[in-house]
Design brief:
The complex is a heterotrimer of chains A (about 170), B (about 500) and C (about 500). Chain B has about 500 residues and is an all-alpha fold. Helices cover about 75% and strands about 0% of the residues of chain B. The two termini of chain B are about 35 Å apart. In chain C, helix 4 packs antiparallel against helix 6. The chains are: A mainly alpha (about 170), B mainly alpha (about 500), C mainly alpha (about 500).
Chain lengths: ~170, ~500, ~500
């Protein structure tokens, strides 16, 4: 008999899968973006169920709050250019399906048979503090490096987007 | 909960000094370009060259200190050799770019800044002994490259190239992250050597999750270095990107991938891993050379030739050991010289707006410009692997390492495919030397070039020759690099042995 | 001092090339005469080498052995013995002659002379190298300039001929490279030294592996010689090449193939060489007879001479095959066959060089090489006629000319080994005489074709080019002792070496 926590996990897992499928199958681009937000939200819930509260919240802020909204804006702004039709990926289906199914079978099979690390007891006070300290101590360089990457992306975005002067 | 300690920097900053120096120089270049646009034409390239030289000095200094691995990076002699190769390549890129960006009106601080940031990512990839750091390096390498590929905003080919590269590159990055996550979950470590060693000690035979994870990482790196079947993007992106960026991509991005592969491959399990690399290498050599034969566009031809060369390089990774990795490093250096040379010639030959890129446009060029004729012939013969040029010596070192490591079959295949390669390189020399120039000066009439470009072209030709004939000291140098790789792998295992890793359960686990 | 003479001979043309590069292209005469004058120095040095060489069984002289790439055991090892001294002389002589003859080249003079000097360094390097790595490098270096010479200054189908020549030779040399790597790893001594590897006898007793390496090397050298059926590049390359290119191609480059057999295959893989000698002999026989008959059928003067090369190089291969197959009892027959093969290499270089020059002479005047259109040139061009008569006689093996001595020695050595094959190859001798005499008849004799009545006789440039070659044909035909003095040391050395191996 599964515990309540496990039932909750299964529920969100199902929502994630359904949402992801809907993103690909729905014809309307706007609806697909909304379904993507649903998927992101349920993934975030999964993280929280797994005691990864920091990752879960980041997921909500970054993916749901920023990326999904950005996408919706992009779709709305370009609607009169592209129209509301969905992307047509039909030609690739026959090839992609067996490959995806195969990868899925392999992964599920090995994941099921594998002895994973035993779950660590949840830290009191959540994970945010631990992660934050790690970022400014052990992983300071990696953390700073991520900001350099963002800077590079920023420079690139500005260069590509700004008006040509002459 | 213990109070956070105030000790913030827990590693020796020297380990990260080269990357920091290059990134900082990139910022300076960017700012200078933004504040004094009037001087951008000569100021930004000069700053870029200075920054690269400064970084090289830091690299050599840091190398001499003999630092232990720290902060998920290693500053061993492999890193030093590799970083210097990258820096030399970046230096040449700046020199080669100058003529091109001036002609195409692309002279912006951003151009050089992005290029330097990308180079620092490349350095990081080879210097990291940790999958997380390697991923950051991969992104730092790639993101500026996506922008640079689309740097000619007026040309739709350039835009298309950038988009293609971005989309497929994002897939590759996703593969890398997923793979790294699987490796971590299988072994409890993101350290490359420790993770590999953990699987070896704990689970004799195969550790499927680890192998799948590693295969995904390999896929991502294979995409970066354009191994068949992950090469589809290469010809389109190479053709569309600004030529100087293509040269940078062909050399630095490829070198970075191989630097990372050299670190990762040593941790690969026996058996399936070897078969995988063998197959990739064979497929890449055959397919790359085969498709290059039918190309009419010089940039596409060089793209397929770069794919073929990735196949040869992978042989060295497969062979591994001191000889194999040393041969890879030597070949990267030789490859850099001849590839930059070929692209430098292409830059001069293409009129404004990349007009003349078909090989047929080069008819009789040797008669109009002996310098271009001679140097291009040298680069082509070197790429084809003919002595006494660097390409031959590099191939020979790779081949003999492969034979010694027990892959004679692959070596025979490599030799046969390189004969195939000779055919398309010869075609370029035939067109340039043996056909009559067009009576009416077509788009390829452009044979005049600024003094700097001609100097760079000649210097690269001399380098291709000298790297061949005087390869002994260079080979000794690259050999010290591969020795460093071996040493730091041993050191990493030694460091983890006394104290149990933070995930002993994974080590004693295994298949149920 | 003496030790560095080979290095000087080999790299002097390269230095000359550097000097020529600095002469502006608008002064072609400076370029021409600088190259010719400079090329006299290696020629003089190699003549001195010939006189100074003292012979002996293991007569390696002027050797220099310095590390080049110590990490993988590559040395700069050069030296000369009885096999290489005549080849070095032949190379420098034919180069100087070609440079003189090429005074009539008007287009892209600077490139022409630069490439020719590079070619000379490559060829000389092949003959002095005693390290596989060095040998291979020079082997390929000699390939590239010839490719350009054919491709730029060649006839109408020059691109096709140049690529075909390059690719054929490259396939062969790549097979050779694999064989070299196999030998390198088989000895385990981490050395590329030709003599050291021969001394170590890699694959001794491993016949399957030795056979594989033998055939790989065979492919490399047989394409160069060329042995039937690998000869198809030769007529194309010869017909399209400029005259000087043909001279060097036939005179020196083909010899590099035979040189490889004698320098590398025989001493290093004696067992395989002995086992497969009969196959080599059969291929040599086919080359001889087929080459002769195909030459007879040619209407193009130059193609005829090209096929005569296939025919004549067959004798060299026959001599080599015979020397391999003979038992220890026939030591002297063995040495005879080897002496004959080596003399034939030299003699063919001289004779074919002269013939190609003479074809060039008439082609530049008449702008055709079609034998059916000529006739009666003997009456119009007296000097030309004398020189052509003499060259053709030397080629068909008239006693008193060097070709006769060489072929006689080959047959004398080959009879005890392969009675039937040798007898059959006599057919080639007869057919050779037939087609050369027929050629003389069609070109020089008969009624004067009025079209050619106004042709000028040979000028000083052409005479200076051809006469030294004719002189050598007669000298070694009448008195071969000076060359046998040099060859015999290597021949007997190789013959006795074989018994031990």
């Amino acid at each position: 008999m599964p515990s309540v926590l496990q039932l909750v996990f299964l529920f969100f897992a199902a929502v994630t899968v359904v949402g992801a499928l809907a993103v690909v199958l729905v014809r309307n681009l706007f609806h697909a973006a909304l379904w993507l937000a649903v998927t992101f939200l349920s993934v975030a819930s999964l993280f929280i169920v797994l005691n990864a509260d920091f990752v879960g919240l980041s997921q909500v802020i970054v993916y749901v709050g920023a990326i999904s909204v950005l996408m919706l804006f992009a779709i709305m702004l370009t609607e009169d250019v592209v129209g509301a039709r969905g992307l047509s990926l039909r030609s690739a289906w026959p090839a992609a399906l067996p490959v995806a199914a195969g990868v899925c079978v392999v992964l599920v099979r090995w994941f099921a048979r594998y002895a994973w690390l035993p779950p660590q007891p949840p830290k009191p006070g959540g994970t945010a503090g631990t992660i934050g300290l790690a970022f400014i101590q052990k992983y300071l360089f990696a953390f700073e490096l991520a900001s350099v990457i963002l800077l590079a992306a920023l420079i690139g975005a500005i260069y590509l987007a700004k008006e040509e002067r002459s | 909960m213990t109070a956070p300690s105030l000790q913030i920097i827990t590693w020796n900053l020297w380990v990260s000094a080269p990357v920091c120096a290059l990134a900082a120089s990139a910022m300076v270049t960017l700012i200078a370009g933004a504040f004094w646009p009037a001087f951008a034409r000569w100021l930004t390239p000069c700053l870029a060259l200075g920054g690269i030289a400064l970084t090289a000095a830091f690299t050599i200094l840091a190398g001499m200190l003999g630092l232990p691995p720290a902060g998920m990076q290693v500053m061993d002699s492999f890193t030093v050799v590799f970083d210097l190769i990258i820096l030399i390549a970046a230096f040449i890129t700046v020199l080669v770019s100058n003529h091109y960006v001036t002609r195409e009106n692309l002279e912006r601080g951003e151009y050089y800044a992005l290029m330097m940031l990308s180079a620092s990512g490349a350095m990081l990839m080879a210097a990291s002994d940790n999958y997380v750091m390697m991923f950051l390096g991969l992104e730092l390498l790639s993101i500026p490259l996506y922008v640079l590929a689309g740097f000619s905003r007026g040309r739709s080919e350039s835009q298309e190239s950038a988009l293609k590269y971005l989309l497929l590159g994002a897939f590759a990055s996703a593969f890398f992250v997923f793979g790294a996550a699987l490796v971590f979950s299988a072994t409890g470590s993101t350290n490359i050597v420790v993770a590999g060693d953990a699987t070896e000690r704990a689970l004799v035979g195969t550790t499927p999750i680890y192998v799948i994870g590693l295969a995904m990482i390999l896929t991502a790196l294979a995409f970066k270095v354009a191994l068949v079947p992950f090469h589809m993007w290469t010809p389109d992106v190479y053709q569309g990107a600004p030529t100087s960026v293509t040269a940078f991509m062909a050399v630095v991005a490829k070198a970075a991938g191989f630097g990372a592969l050299a670190r990762v491959a040593a941790a690969g399990p026996e058996g399936s891993w070897t078969v995988l690399l063998w197959g990739l290498s064979a497929a890449t050599m055959i397919w790359g050379n085969l498709l290059a034969i039918s190309q009419n566009n010089i940039k596409r031809l060089l793209a397929y030739s770069s794919i073929a060369h990735a196949g040869y390089l992978l042989m060295g990774i497969l062979a591994g050991g001191r000889a194999g990795i040393s041969a890879v490093l030597f070949y990267l250096l030789a490859y850099a010289a001849m590839t930059f040379g070929a692209f430098a010639a292409v830059i001069i030959l293409a009129g404004r707006g990349d007009g003349a890129e078909d090989i047929e446009d080069y008819r009789g060029i040797a008669r109009r410009s002996p310098l271009l004729g001679w140097t291009m012939a040298i680069f082509m013969f070197s790429l084809a692997g003919l002595p006494p040029f660097a390409g031959f010596f590099g191939k020979l070192y790779l081949f003999s390492a492969a034979v010694e490591a027990g892959y004679p079959g692959l070596t025979v295949l490599a030799v046969l495919t390189s004969v195939m390669g000779v055919f398309y390189y010869l075609r370029v020399t035939v067109v340039m030397w043996m056909q009559e120039p067009e009576a009416e000066s077509g788009p390829a009439a452009q044979t005049s070039a600024p003094l700097l470009s001609r100097l760079v072209l000649s210097a690269l030709a001399v380098a291709v020759l000298a790297l061949g004939i005087f390869s002994s000291p260079v080979l000794r140098w690259t050999n010290s690099g591969s020795a460093g790789l071996e040493r730091s792998a041993e050191a990493a295992i030694q460091m983890t042995l006394p104290e149990p890793t933070n995930a002993p359960a994974a080590l004693s686990g295994g298949s149920r | 001092m003496d030790r560095w003479v080979l290095t000087v001979i080999t790299f002097l043309p390269l230095g000359l090339l550097a000097a020529v590069l600095f002469v502006p292209g608008r002064r072609p005469n400076v370029i021409r005469w600088l190259s010719i004058a400079g090329s006299l120095v290696p020629l003089a040095l190699s003549a001195w080498l010939w006189l100074d060489y003292s012979g002996g069984a293991h007569g390696l002289q002027y050797a220099v052995n310095r590390p080049w790439i110590p990490l993988i055991g590559v040395n700069y090892h050069v030296g000369a013995d009885g096999l290489s001294v005549p080849m070095i002389f032949l190379t420098t002589l034919l180069t100087t002659i070609s440079l003189i003859y090429s005074l009539n080249i008007k287009e892209r003079v600077k490139e022409f002379y630069c490439l020719f000097l590079l070619l000379e360094t490559g060829m000389l390097g092949v003959f002095v190298a005693l390290d596989y790595f060095l040998f291979y490098v020079f082997w390929e270096v000699s390939l590239v300039p010839m490719y350009f010479l054919i491709g730029i200054w060649g006839g109408p189908r020059r691109e096709y001929a140049a690529i075909k020549f390059f690719l054929y030779t490259l396939v062969g040399s790549v097979a050779m490279l694999l064989a070299i790597l196999a030998m390198y790893f088989a000895t385990g001594a981490r050395t590329f030294d030709i003599i050291a590897i021969a001394g170590a006898q890699p694959f001794a007793g491993q016949m399957a592996l030795q056979g594989l390496v033998f055939w790989a090397l065979f492919l490399g050298f047989a394409i160069k010689v060329p042995v039937w059926p690998f000869h198809t590049w030769l007529p194309d390359a010869h017909v399209e090449a400029p005259t000087a290119g043909s001279v060097i191609l036939a005179g020196v480059l083909l010899k590099m193939g035979c040189y490889g057999f004698l320098r590398i295959v025989l001493p290093t893989l004696p067992e395989a060489a002995q086992q497969y000698a009969v196959w080599v002999a059969v291929l040599a026989l086919i080359s001889i007879v087929y080459g002769a008959f195909v030459a007879m059928a040619q209407m193009d003067f130059k193609k005829l001479i090209a096929y005569s090369s296939v025919n004549h190089m067959g004798y060299v291969m026959l001599g080599i095959a015979a020397a391999c197959s003979l038992g220890p009892a026939n030591l002297s027959d063995r040495a005879t066959a080897l002496n004959g093969a080596m003399l034939q290499m030299f003699s063919h270089g001289v004779i074919t060089g002269a013939l190609f020059l003479l074809v060039g002479v008439v082609y530049e005047r008449a702008h055709t090489r079609d034998l059916r259109e000529f006739g009666g040139l003997g009456a119009v061009m007296a000097k030309y006629s004398v020189l052509l008569w003499m060259s053709c006689f030397a080629s068909l093996g008239l006693p008193g000319m060097s070709g006769f001595v060489a072929e006689f020695f080959v047959f004398r050595g080959a009879f005890p080994a392969y009675l039937l094959i040798t007898c059959l190859s006599m057919i080639g001798l007869v057919v050779t005489a037939a087609y050369l005499l027929w050629t003389i008849q069609r070109v020089l004799l008969g009624p004067v074709n009025p079209k050619w009545a106004g042709l000028k006789d040979m000028d000083w440039r052409e005479i200076v080019s051809v006469v030294p070659l004719i002189a050598l044909m007669i000298l070694f035909g009448v008195y071969p002792a000076p060359i046998f003095r040099i060859l015999n040391g290597y021949a007997t050395g190789l013959a006795s070496y074989f018994v031990g191996g």
